[in-house]
């Protein structure tokens, strides 16, 4: 998936993710936000390791 994804689409997904993170930082308490961010990083790492180009 990442190998065929264009730069424009990748930048769009990154911008949406960044905006969502900032939005959630105002709504969620700090400890829960840290747990969610850690879980997202772990899942992203597993997905990237599982998908070799």
Write structural notes for this entry:
With 53 residues, the protein is mostly helical. The chain is 79% helix and 0% strand. The protein contains two helices and no strands.
Describe this protein with a few key phrases.
mainly alpha; 79% helix; 53 residues
Strand and helix layout:
Elements: H1 7-27, H2 30-50
In short:
This protein is mainly α and 53 residues long.
Strand content: under 5%
Mean pLDDT: 82
Radius of gyration: 13 Å
Shape: flat
The computed structural class is: mainly alpha
Distance between the termini: 9 Å
Low-confidence runs of at least 5 consecutive residues: none
Please count the helical segments.
2
The quaternary state of the protein chains shown equals: single chain
According to DSSP, the number of beta strands is: 0
Helix and strand run: HH
Helical content band: over 70%
Largest sheet: none
């Amino acid at each position: 998936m990442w190998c065929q994804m264009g730069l424009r689409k990748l930048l769009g997904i990154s911008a949406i993710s960044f905006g969502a993170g900032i939005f959630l930082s105002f709504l969620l308490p700090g400890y829960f936000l840290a747990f969610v961010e850690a879980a997202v990083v772990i899942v992203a790492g597993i997905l990237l390791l599982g998908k070799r180009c």
